[in-house]
Design goal:
Length: 350
Amino acid sequence: MLLDHERVAIHTGPRSRLPVIVAVHSTALGPAAGGLRLWHYPDWRDGLTDALRLSAAMTSKFAVAGLPSGGGKAVVALPEGVTLDTGRRREVLRDVADVIDSLGGMYATGPDVGTGPADMALIGETTPHVFCRPAQLGGSGDSSPHTARGTLAALRAVSRRLYGTASLNGRSLAVIGLGRVGAGLARLLTAEGAALTVTDIDPDKRRIGEELGAVWRAPDEILAADVDIVVPSALGSVLTGQNVAELRCRAVVGPANNQLATPEVADLLHHRGIIWVPDYVASAGGVINAISTELHHAGADAADARVRAIEETVNDLLETAHRLGRTPAQAADELATRRLGAASGLRRGA
Ligand SMILES: NC(=O)c1ccc[n+]([C@@H]2O[C@H](COP(=O)([O-])OP(=O)(O)OC[C@H]3O[C@@H](n4cnc5c(N)ncnc54)[C@H](O)[C@@H]3O)[C@@H](O)[C@H]2O)c1
């Protein structure tokens, strides 16, 4: 298999002695950006595989969102069983910051699984190529409210396709996972007049459901709920070849990453007449806001407009998919490929 990435930096951190991997998939549209994942892997090469896959997904995410950024990802591959105390964590983050800084702006990092705004603050002491630092340090902080708004925009587009109106008033939705994004999104949906069914593996989250007047279902029952739209907002491969047959909804649209157990599940959903908006499109609001404000220096209103533009992006994808008989996933991939091809062509011609 050919390497499809512009640059992959692999270092043993001089302080932490841990593998630090930065994968820059593409800078065709602009300098690369993507989160830092601090996660356990059986072997550091599994972390490399993750970095290669996730950085390529970031390229598609930015291309479809119409942002002048390329795809990158950083991974620190923690051996199984290793936990980081505060001192060791600082060493790891300093090691990551050095690698990012050595790339001279080719890649900027933000938070991902295992990292947050406070970690970005520490990285920001070494390199300016970082985003989502806490607001008091001039960063855009927690991205989840913007991710929730972006998902709402995607849901509005799906509603328009299904029911001829973007309004979610009176629609029934099942929100799976009431974490930072899911809870915020559930509040937005309630304010829009939607009727919610919700779940979480954390029983404490029942309180949020009660506060919103939502119906609570067990996590293993909610996917088959009799609702208009299912909104995956937790973790993991929630849609599989088996459970797609049980769905009773007309669409699945949510912020959770990696919703499909395998790519073919998108075709199964399509054959059942269920609209599935690729997660990398529906979940882009957080990174769109962070990158727009911190790396492209857009004002809050301009950044907000870019997040809301997810509605138009999804409208177009659904329209194209319908017209050409494609799945929305194929339409999104083709749009990304077209935009990247056009940018690469411009570069060659320059
Ligand atoms: N935070 C962001 O800005 C952002 C941006 C893009 C994508 N995402 C994705 O959105 C999803 C949610 O992110 P988050 O930041 O809200 O995470 P979070 O950890 O705050 O929330 C996840 C919630 O899901 C619950 N959960 C886990 N497994 C579950 C299951 N099987 N059934 C029901 N509930 C379950 C957890 O208890 C938790 O409440 C993740 O997949 C994340 O990768 C988040």
